[in-house]
Amino acid sequence: MSIESKRFEIFSGTGGVGKTTLATSRAIELARNNKKVLLITIDPAKRLRELLGLSLEQSGEVVRVKDPLAEGDDLELDVELMNPEKTFSRIAKINGCEEILNNRILNVLTRPYGGLNEILAIVELNLQFETKKYDTIVLDTPPGSHFLDFLDSIERIKVFFDQSFIEIFQYLGKKVDTSSLNFGKKILNKFVSTGVKKLLSYLQKVTGATFVDEFIDAIIAIYKTKSTFISALDLQETLKNKEFSNWYLVTSVEQNKLREALELKDHAKGLITEDSFIVLNKCIEADLNKWSPEEEKLIKLKQSLFNRERKLKDNLANKFQKVLEFPEVISLSPFDHIKGLTLNWKSLS
């Protein structure tokens, strides 16, 4: 099966199936084919740092990795470890409001696991896409349920900027430049709901007025950067378009991993379809065919393993049009894993 590269190559899957390693090897193989490639990982795990020798301090920065496998390459391969704080700093700079970075609540929200990770990941992806520097952006998404949060983040942007927060500003008497924030007249004329009054009254009692003021300032600060967030909404349609995006759902020969992958597909809101690639990683059929045990127990074990893998492959073939098989790379070296998988991608080019 020949795979044509697209503007986006998106890897999803549950934890422990080799998703990050596969995304990395795909990025390397594309770069070796004279593509300008950006590899972004939203996965908070340290796997990519280990694979490419990056430091934690480099998170949030675009780093050129010319020779990832130490084989004398000179690739146009850039790598970025997603960092929500640095993304938000870029957003503030773009919108000319860097003073918002001093808000205590935003400082908490934009930390790793602070609550804005997935939303800022979508924005970061769009910012890099808009640079038009790259032929392909390879995206290593968060594992499992975190991937669903990533997909939901586009909807969260829509909900957040539905302009309903103007009620809070009105209730507290905050002066907001509504012309610059593009609030609609209809919203400005709305009565402040009783629910908002009760919520803010409760917050004032529990946290004090200072916290509420900081909370409102944080909301206003985000609204000042509205244009950057809103522009990321269009990215969803690009990601859905099969002319621009290849989606890879990664699983392995373990039965429970396959079940988790299919559940992920069912909840992916039509982004992962029967036309997407399903990647069955860690296949051992080729190694089993080379194995000639003599003991009866080992013969039975070989047949059991062979039957299990065949059953999984047949099951996938009934659900997906495009099934990719990648062998188990038996080595403790992460470089050996990437090299083996890169060769497999090469055979699919």
Describe the secondary structure blueprint for this structure.
Blueprint: E1 8-13, H1 19-32, E2 37-41, H2 47-52, E3 62-64, E4 77-81, H3 84-94, H4 104-109, H5 117-130, E5 136-140, H6 145-160, H7 166-172, H8 178-181, H9 185-188, H10 194-207, H11 209-224, H12 226-231, H13 235-240, E6 245-252, H14 255-266, E7 277-283, H15 285-290, H16 296-319, E8 322-327, H17 334-348
Parallel strand pairs: 1-5, 1-6, 2-4, 2-5, 6-7, 7-8
Antiparallel strand pairs: 3-4
Can you characterise this structure?
The protein is an alpha/beta fold and 349 residues long. The chain has 2 domains: 266 residues, Rossmann fold (3-Layer(aba) Sandwich); 68 residues, no CATH class. Strands 3-4-2-5-1-6-7-8 form an 8-stranded mixed beta sheet, sandwiched between helices. Helix 5 crosses helix 6.
* Shape, principal axes of CA atoms: elongated
CATH architecture of the largest domain: 3-Layer(aba) Sandwich
According to CATH, the fold-level topology of the largest domain is: Rossmann fold
Number-wise, the strands total 8
What letter string, H or E per element, gives the SSE order? Answer: EHEHEEHHHEHHHHHHHHEHEHHEH
Secondary structural class: alpha/beta
Tell me the name of the CATH class of the largest domain: Alpha Beta
Name of the CATH homologous superfamily of the largest domain: P-loop containing nucleotide triphosphate hydrolases
* Low-pLDDT regions: 175-193
Global mean pLDDT: 81
Q: Enumerate how many helices there are, as a single number.
A: 17
Biggest sheet architecture: 8 strands, mixed
Helix content: 40-55%
Walk across the major sheet and give the strand order.
3-4-2-5-1-6-7-8
The percent range for strand residues is 5-15%
